[in-house]
Every structure is written in structure tokens, then in C-alpha cells.
TrEMBL record:
Keyword Transmembrane among record annotations: yes
Domain TonB-dependent receptor-like beta-barrel: 434-956
Pfam families cross-referenced by the UniProt entry: CarbopepD_reg_2, Plug, TonB_dep_Rec_b-barrel
Family according to the record: Belongs to the TonB-dependent receptor family.
Name of the protein in its database record: Iron complex outermembrane receptor protein
Amino acid sequence: MMKEKSIKQNKKRTREILLLLLVGIFTFSTSLAQNSGTIHVSGTVKDNKSGETVIGASVMVKGSSTGTVTDFDGKFQLSAPADGTLVVSYIGYTTKEVAVGNKTNLSIVLDEDSELLSEVVVIGYGQVRKGDATGALTSVKPNELNKGLQITAQDALIGRVAGVNIVPGDGAPGSGGTIRIRMGASLSANQDPLIVIDGVPVNNTSISFINPNDIETFTVLKDASATAIYGSRASNGVIIITTKKGGLGGSSKPQINYSSNFSISKIPEYYEVLSAEEYRNVYSNGTIKLPEGESFTLGTASTDWQKEIYRAAFGTEHNLSVGGTTKQVPYRVSIGYLSQDGVLHANNYKRFNGGLGLSPKLFDKHLSLDINVKGSMERENPVSTGVVGGAISFDPTRPVYESYPGNVGLGYYMWMDNNGKPRSQGAANPVAELKLSDKLHTTYRTLGNVAADYKIHGFEDLHLNLNLGYDIRRKKEEETIPDLAPSMYISNRNDGRGKFHSEDYRNSNYVLSAFANYIKDISPKHNINAMAGYEWQRFWYSNNPKDVVKDVVDTSISDEDVLYLISFFGRLNYSFNQKLLVTATFRADGSSRFSPDNRWGYFPSLALAYRLTEEKFIRDIKPLSDLKLRVSYGQTGQQDISGYHPYLPLYTISSNAAQYPFGDQWLYMYRPNGYDPHIKWETTSTYNIGLDYGFLNNRIYGSIDAYKRYTKDLLNDIYVPGGSNFTNKLNTNVGDMEGQGLELAISAIPVKTKDWEWTISGNFTYGKSKITKLTTIDTEGSYVKTGGVDRNDLQIHKVGETPNTFFLLKQAYDDNGKPLEGQYIAKDGSVTTVQSDDNKYITDKSSRVPYFYGLSTHLTYKKWDFGINGHGSFGNYVFNYQEAKQSLTRLYGDGMSGNISKTALERGFAKEQYFSDYFLESAAFFKFDNITLGYTFNKLWNSSSSLRMAFSAQNIAIITNYSGSDPEIYKGIDNNIYQRPRTYTLSFNLNF
């Protein structure tokens, strides 16, 4: 005990010496900068609330670099002009300016900064002070100093919010990822969260068209108290995106920002297959036994097919924005351009952005307008991920290029038979597929709104709000493959004729929201905030496909439909003494997706919050600066299911390839579709308890949330009796599911001095879902197959299990632990070779992520900054289908050869083992998303100009035991994955 006490005393003494040394350095540096006319000033900095001294507070002479920090007694000394001003600041306190005025001894009192609690966050149809929020919500501002290269807006949220799991898209630039808030609440219905951009609920979650540089904040609504105001679309959570506005700080002078990024990307690693030399050895050592009487000759080339399809990819991005106030109208104009090559040849993504925002105030500032218009054009040259698997499996002894009579293959190697004709069953040359397939996807999108807030003259407590918005999108897809291309002999019509395919998708979404908001302080202790409104929304889409093969045109009948949503909603907030907070919401939604009998859904919620720090017995706990308990319950719905009118008996017309001859004419046929006249909403009920906390004037703050969720009337595909409908499988309301979870978030500022600042943030999430009802009559052996490749279903939904649980054969092993090919453990414990569903077992392992977390840290020293972001998960599993389909039979068959992985050669399986749990692996990982180092040059030509240069590296390392390239796959099946690249970026950000 004496030894431990001595160690603690020595540590404390060491800290004191280091801090005093730091103070001495600052004091010495300021003494070197003294000018004539200065006086020696000393003083003490104290806390207004407790009266205690503040250690480490920054004391600066305004307009200069002269400054110091307070010592252990809260005291400071420095030289300052007699007519100067001291700027005193410390984290958790309001910055204070004190005139020197020939005073040599100052007593400065700092007030607690309640900015963290008074910060206004955007919620559904309004705003609320963060300290008054009763629901589980998180507001995130994109970190301009620690973000790396962000191609899509969702990249800014990866690993940042507890309860929100974002699986990035694949390696194709601009690819959309998967966002899941609290794991999602559906099975076959849409599980994506509702996205609201400047008050406009968009009709899909693809937010790649939004320039990340235009985003001011993300607000994530998670529990039913926060989301129920959106009713029928909120079961999977809500993400509200607010874009940047002009006129910040009220400055009339234009504020100009220009930023640029220059990047280079490369593939992290290649899949380990046999080299040409190793391949020839396999054939020469007898591993491959050709059928009796058959001869086969290997090629003479040595081709690394993966290196042929991959490349170093370059990218550039430029953004320019101008904001300010002209004629008392705040404005912001922005334009952006992005061009990013993919690491696969021929893959490129370009985006052009433009935006305009105006925020005028009229009628003596009683009418506030917010006008936003954004437009984008995305041009993508996509590639098929099949070329990844093709490059892995193609014979390395074959050349990339080869000439054949009649220019067959257009100069690329092909598999030919003994008669010199292309083989229709041969594998396609992956390089030819990349180079000869000309794909272009062009998306035009514009989104805008006009929001009016009118504060009634003479009755200013009442605000009338009107929001008119639109979201219009057109996507044109075209693919052209020329005649004689190798792929045209093994697909399309297998005769070498080229093809042209096009599709024209159009979507429009119009919204009108009108609501009144009444805010009133009834007395010094009682406040109410009431809101009631109406919303109308119209969704429309059309699709026009067309296929052309030579002179044959196959134009499928275009698809077009329209959907309407009508809603009435209201919210009441009551506050007692800023201590007890109550929020009640109600929304009624009517959707044309359902029959008149089931058209309306009703979604209530209630939340209570108790700010414990307003109680005296808590307020006396000096380290505690914030403590708020939250409890909520609410219901939300889901109406985003397949088809706009699943309750109606509809007919589908046939295409050109399915006509019926009648005399000398070919007639189109109509086929009845299956339908369910009783289909209705999915409804999710959620209970949530949360705690918001803060310590040391919120230098440490965060939240804890626990929830329980029940979904009823779950939509699921079930088989129906023959003759009872026009299909044997119907999507209908038969299921129930429950979920639960725990979410932890913490942020801290361990160091805050004049020159140094270190921040660290982390979050952790546990979430679990279990199906409690699945079909009309659930039995022990009933389940629904899902999740597979090439008709090989690998996952199931089953009562009592997590959705997407793997359903596989249990691999048998010999005494040395080596897997026995084609042998499995049956349910009775015996060994079997039968690969039937009866011998498969429920693994209790799912692709859904039960545990995930994010970490970030940022360090600044004077003009330098350094940041690291990372995220990870564990508890979920991935099936290595890429390895399961490797076998010795892929080396030779029907006069053609193919490659396999080195591990497959060592394993020695003669045939593919698609269902063996040998290939089911843990998907646990931790990724270093990006590391950024930056330096800022201030006052380039005036006091407001600055330039920041930064270098960042993304996707630089992954810690995992998974044998494949990357276990972060949302569906949990690794097959022909386009790897996410490793990217290095040089960035410039100029402000003036």
C-alpha cells in the first residue's frame, strides 16, 4: 500500500512539474514578444458556478499570438497593451473578453457554456433544442478536418452513430451502400430508412446525387418517439439531411470556398490462384487425369488475368461555393465536379452538381422563406462483377489476344472447338468483357423546395408553415456489345450477333406540407409547443425497356404507375421548469397502395424526459454537468412494399418473345398476377429508455439507449393452395418479429490548451432480431429460403431465429481435422453423402450484424491536425462462396481448362461444395477507414483567407481472421466481390 501511494504521489508530482514547465514555456515565449507600451498583467480565472479556479484556461491578447494558460491555482501572468483586451477560453465555458485598462491584477469569472444543450437540432416538421429532445436522436456535422475522400454523402456517417450500421458499397466509385438503423424492422419489405432532404422525403435512399460538401448536418431519428411523426415510412428510422445556407454570421461580404481532391486508388490484394508455372505443374504431375483417349494441350502464354483487369485508378474533385448576404437576402451558390475511375478497367463515375439557396425575410422579419434548388448529373460506366470471378477462374496459360478467321472474337482469345468454331459453353475472356461492353448509365436529378414560416403579426406565438417540394429523377441505361464479341457466343443468342439494350426510368415525387406551430410560455415554469399539420405526397414512375439484336427489336411494354400518400399529424411538447419534458405525437396516414378497408394507419407516440441536473441533490455533484433520463413508446409503419397496388387484380402483357399465333398474326397475351385484397401495413411498436450524460462541463458527454421492438403483420412470401390465387406464392401479412438492442456513445476532449487539442469519440451497438411468426401455421420444420447464388439458397427465415440465418450441411472431418469431401454429419449423428434439405441444419449464425462500433480521434497542434477514423463489427458470419465453388473439376472439363485457388488445390476437393459449413466464417473485423494529416495556412492575403492542405489514406488496413479479401458484405455471401480500393488523396481547401 505504501508503495502504491508513493507511485501515485510521484505521478501527481510529475504532472505538476510538466504543467508548470508548459506554463513556463508559454510565459517565456510571451516575454520575448513584448513591445514597448505593454504592462505586466496577472490574474485568476474562476468558475462562476462553483467559485473554484479553472486550471489550463487559455488567456490570449486579442489580435496577437501572445498568450498563456492558467496554472494549478488558476493564475496567469503575461504582458499586454494597456489598452488591449484579453480573450479567456476553456472547454465547457463561454469565451470571455476582458479589457486590460491599466489593471495589473484581474479576477475573471467564466460562465458555464450550455451550447451543447442549447444547440438546435432538426426534427420532423420543426426544430428543438438538443437539451429539450425527448427521443433517441443524434445530430452529426461532417468533420471537415477528418473525413478523407467522401464520394457519396453516406460516407460521412460510417462508424459515427450508435445504432446505425452502414455497409459501404463495393469498389465501384459512386456505388450505394446499405444503411440499417437498429437492424431494420422488416423482412421482404423495404428496410432502408426514410431520407428527408431539406424537408422533402425522397423516394429512394440513393443519396449519391447530393454533394457531401453541401451538407450541413445529418440528424438520425432512431426511436418511435422521434420517428412516429413520419408514421407509415418510419419503421426503419429516419435520416434528416440539412444542407448549408448562406449569410452565415450576417456578413454581406461574399464568403468563397474552393476545395479540390486528387486521388489514386489501387486494389488491396489479389485472390491467390495458380500462376502459369504452378498451373503447368498441376497438369504435369498427374493431379489432373484426362478421360481415357482424350488429349489436351495447355497454352504457351503466362497471363495474370487479375492484373489484366485491374489498374491504378485516378480521381479528381473540385467544389466551389459562394455565400453571403445581398440586399439583406442570405444566399449560397455551389457547383461541384467529381470524376473517379474504378480499379477495374473501363469503370468510371462522374458527377456534376449545382445548388442555390436563398433565405430572405419579409414583412418586418415575420415571414421567413427558405428556397433550395439542387441539380445533378451522374454519368457512370459500370462493369459486371462477373469479370472478377472470370479473371480468377480463367486459364493462365491462355493469351489475352488472339486472331481468328473472319475476325471472330475481335482480336481476343476465345475457346474454340476442334472445328474452329466458338464454344457456347466456354468461359468468357474477362478482358474482352471489360473492353468490348460499352455501358453507360446517366442519371439526371433535381430536388428543391420552398419553405415559408409566417409569424403572425400581433400573435407572434403562432407560426404558419408551408413547404412545397419536389424530387424528379430520370435514369437512362444503355449497353452496346458489338457483333463477333466473345461474350456474344456464350450469351444473348449464342451466335455472335451483338446487342443493344436500353432502359429509361423516370420518377417524380411532389410533396405539400402545411402545419401550424404554437409556442407559449404559460408561466415562468410552464411552456408548451403544439404543432398540427397536413401532408400530401405523390409518387410516379415509368420504365421503358428496349432490346435490339441486329434488325430484331424487342420492346417490352412500358411500366407506369402512381401512388398517393395523405397524412394528418400533430405533436405536443410540454416543459415544466426546464426539468420535466413531455412529447406526444400522432399521425394518420392514408396510402393508395392498400384497399379502402385497410387504407389508413394510425401511429401514436409518447415520450418523457427528466433532466436530473435541475434537481439540487444532483446539481451539487460538481463533476456532473448534464444528466437526462428519457423514456418513450410509439408505433411506426411500413408501406413501402413491392408494387404500387398489390391489392388489385392486375394483368401483365407479354413481350415480343411470348406472343401467340392467330392466323397470320402474332398476338400479345395477358397473364393474371397474384394479389392479396387484404394486404395492409406492417406496424412496429418500440419501447426505448435512454440516458444523456455530461461530465466536467461536457468535456465528456454521450448517451446510453436500450430498446425493445415488436413488428406485427410482417410481410412475407408464403405458398398458397393451388387454385386459390393466380400464383403459388404470395406476399402477405402473416409474420411477427421482435428485436432488442443497446447503444452507447461517448465523446471526450482529454486535452485542451492554447496549442493542443485532442478529441476522441466512440460508439458501440448491440442489436438482435428474432422471428416469432412466419407463416399461417408455423411448424418445427417450416422455414422460408432466402439469400443464395445461382439458385443455391444458403439462408433461411425461421421462427425463433435471426433473419438470414445460414442453413447448411455440417462438414465431416477425419481424425486429423481435414474435411472429408462430400461427407456430412446427419441429424442423427451419422455420416451421409446426401446433400438434401433434410440433412441441412440451422447454424444459428446469421449475416445480420449484432455488434458493431466506431472510433475516431483528432489531434491538433497549432496549425497541424491529425485524425484517424475506424469502424468494425463482430458476431455476424459470411459464407465464402468464392472458395466453395473452387474444385479440381474446374481445372478441366469438356476440352477446356480453368484456374482455381491455391487453397482449393491443397484441399483437394474434386467437386464444388456449395452447402458445406466449412466455408462459413466469422465476419468480425476492424477497419482503419482513413488517416488524415493536414496543415493550415492562415492570413494568406487578408485576415479571412486561409488554405488547408491535407493528405489522407483510406481503407489502409483491416484486422480480421476471414480468409477472403473483405468480410464486410451486407448479404453475407462472398462471390465475385468488387473489392473496395485503397485510396491516397491530396486535398486543398481555400477560404476567403
